[in-house]
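For practice. Any example?
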Amino acid sequence: MPKVTAQYLAEKKKEIVAAAMRVCVAKPAYEITLRDVVRECGISTGGIYNYFSSVDDIFVEILNQAYAEFPYADELIKIFESKRPVAEIVVEAFKHEGRLIDSMYGRYGKFMMELDVILLNDPERGRHMISQSKGNNENNIFLAKLFAFINTSIAEGALNPIVPVPHILFTVIGATEGVRKFATAKEYVKESLMMLGLTETECANAEGLMEILARVLLKMLNAKI
């Protein structure tokens, strides 16, 4: 029997993931079964277990693929470690997060929103998938680096918050999640944002909205600009 190479295994996994993505276009992720993927990729039910043990494992692979398409953590760390003024660092970090959201949710938004349904209805299953994905760390690194940077800058006198810091951080978490939802359904949401007074340029993408959020944050932090 010919030896199965690592490259062959990797290619087969890619084929299965691509098939699962095609199924996700036609059917909500929370309704997809391993049998659906088997039918789409043409592999036997027994054969698919050589690559994935469950449909959730395939979903984790899709999440990992989504985050791998955007070089994120290294660039974010460089931003926070730069010697630029505090306000510039905050704005650039938020814009970088916005570019990630645009990149990832532009292609995978429907899938990721449908995973939220799994998380709501089967929390244990949803948490397991999130914990196994590389994206779990990618999401957390932005907030962790941001909050550490804010606290350090306050201690150094570069920031002087006008409202309690926990309230500010809560606002950032909620608003960032809202921007992610916007990226998934922006064609339906953009008109409402423009009714608030935002320009079409400001709400054209997540990067623009994250820049607005950064500047609001700097006002609440009473940044020295």
Remarks:
- The chain has two domains: 6-53, 64-220.
- The chain has a mean pLDDT of 86.
